[in-house]
Amino acid sequence: MASNLSRAIDSNEGKQTLKNARTYFFLPLIALVTMASFFFLARIAARCSKTTSSTEKVFNLSPEECLALKKKSDEGDSDAALRLFDYYEFSKNDINTVAVYLKRSIQLGNARAKGYSFILGDDNKEKQEQQPEPGARFPR
Predict the structure, then answer these.
(1) Residue 84 contacts residue 68 (beta carbons within 8 Å)
(2) What is the pLDDT of residues 31-88, one digit of tens each?
(3) What b/e sequence results for 72-89 when a residue is b if at least 16 CB atoms lie within 10 Å of its CB, and e otherwise?
(4) DSSP per residue over 59-81, as a string?
(5) SS3 53
(6) Taking the CB of residue 21, how many other CB atoms lie within 10 A of it?
(7) What average pLDDT does this structure show over 98-106?
(8) What is the tens place of the pLDDT at every residue in 8-28?
(9) Cα→Cα distances 130→51, 98, 125, Å
(10) So what's the pLDDT on residue 128?
(11) Quick one: pLDDT at residue 104?
(12) Which candidate, 64, 119, 65, 112, places its Cα nearest to that of 95?
């Protein structure tokens, strides 16, 4: 009877040992797959951080293009002034220069620039002057 008991213990231990061996075999494999996926994601993140935003790319100008557009703007080209407005607004974020080229483009008659006039705040002053004072009664 003791031999049957020892065989049962040995067979259970053998199964447990086999189960432990499988676990220890797959743990390094799981760790390897996990490390590989983190490496892959890190490479993707590194590529994404090197790229600039699409708005900056679209509105960016080379120094030569900028000088040429400034010359055209000085000669009276409203589209060149508006392009410089876009450049300084979306690529350089220079508020003072934005106002200069937006005013110039509006003065030259560019319809799209007139739509941006709220940036200057000049249009809002005229609208405020036309508005009645708070609490004023309207004639019937």
Answers:
(1) no
(2) 777 877 777 777 777 666 555 556 767 788 889 999 999 999 999 999 999 999 989 8
(3) bbeeebbebbbbbbbbbb
(4) H---HHHHHHHHHHHHHT-HHHH
(5) coil
(6) 10
(7) 90
(8) 555 555 566 656 666 677 777
(9) 48, 27, 9
(10) 45
(11) 92
(12) 119
Instruction: Answer whether 78's CB lies under 8 Å from 108's CB.
Output: yes
Q: Tokens representing 127?
A: 């609208």
Structure token pair of residue 98? 């934005």
- 140: tokens are 């019937």
Percent of the chain surpassing pLDDT 70: 60
Please state the pTM of the whole predicted model: 0.50
Which tokens hold the place of 72? 């055209």
pLDDT of residue 124: 45
